[in-house]
Write a structure and sequence with these properties.
CATH topology: Ferritin
Distance between the termini: 57 Å
Helix content: over 70%
CATH architecture: Up-down Bundle
Oligomer: single chain
Number of helices: 6
Structural class: mainly alpha
Length: about 160
């Protein structure tokens, strides 16, 4: 059955493509955060271990919301690491950096996801896609707050 939500197929495709980039960024950040949760060491181990766990759990819920919005627009959500690696603006971490470097990388990742989300707004505004704009606003709020909390751990260092 055809989709008739007041947004053309071409614009829905453009939005879905942008959301696919957001999904890739979010998933790579999820994976990086989970990796750091497993591998963090040092005097702040417990604090960071628990903080990273909260963050990767939040990101796991986010990827589902983003993928479901792509589906609601009528397109398949990407679901392969190779696609995520190609679409994401966030680089994977294959090693185990020191805890301060983990924090810095996660701040950079949170900010990258925010930029990806923000970049979709001109199109969303043009076609009045308020549901996607609402999703992105919520995501940006979460990522900006998380980046702030992570940055605060580096104060004075």
């Amino acid at each position: 059955m055809a989709i008739d939500i007041g947004i053309s197929a071409q614009d829905r495709k453009s939005i879905a493509d942008g959301l696919s980039h957001l999904l890739a960024d979010t998933y790579i950040l999820y994976l990086k955060t989970h990796n750091f949760h497993w591998n963090v060491t040092g005097p702040a181990f417990r604090t960071l271990h628990l903080m990273f766990e909260e963050q990767y759990n939040e990101l796991a819920l986010a990827v589902d919301s983003i993928a479901e919005r792509i589906r609601a627009l009528g397109f398949p959500a990407p679901g392969a690491y190779s696609i995520y690696a190609r679409l994401s603006s966030i680089k994977e971490e294959e090693g185990v950096p020191a805890s301060d470097d983990m924090i810095k990388q996660l701040v950079e990742g949170q900010e990258a996801v925010t930029r990806t989300a923000r970049g979709l707004f001109p199109l969303l505004d043009k076609v009045s896609d308020e549901p996607t704009a609402d999703l992105l606003t919520q995501r940006m709020q979460a990522h900006e707050k998380t980046a702030w909390m992570l940055r605060s751990l580096l104060e004075g260092k």
